[in-house]
Design a protein that fits this description.
Helices cover 4% and strands 40% of the residues. It is mainly beta and 104 residues long. The strands form two sheets. A three-stranded antiparallel sheet has the order 1-2-5, with no helix packed on it. A hairpin with a 3-residue loop joins strand 3 (35-41) and strand 4 (45-52). 22% of the residues are buried.
Amino acid sequence: MPTDVLALLGGLTETAQDGRFLTVVATHGSCDDGPTVKALETSGSVVSSASTANTEDGPCTSELRGEKVPVKLDRPLGEGIVLDTFTGRPVPYGEWPVTAQSRS
């Protein structure tokens, strides 16, 4: 996957007490250096986009990995919502992967 292609965010796992740091699970493959996450802050939301760094050409397994990535915000999130650029939807709160057992 080229580094300019968006990747899925797997979940919002933590918000710091001061609201200026988030921890999200970003997905990536097995033939790259891991995910990077950027945030665009608006008055009511944080739009997060994930991508992969240094993808390699050639044979690669097709597994999807999740890695926790800290995201520093310029201002506290407060009551704002965290959106995923890949899906256009709110990032689910919780660990990744979401299973039927983890939803109950």
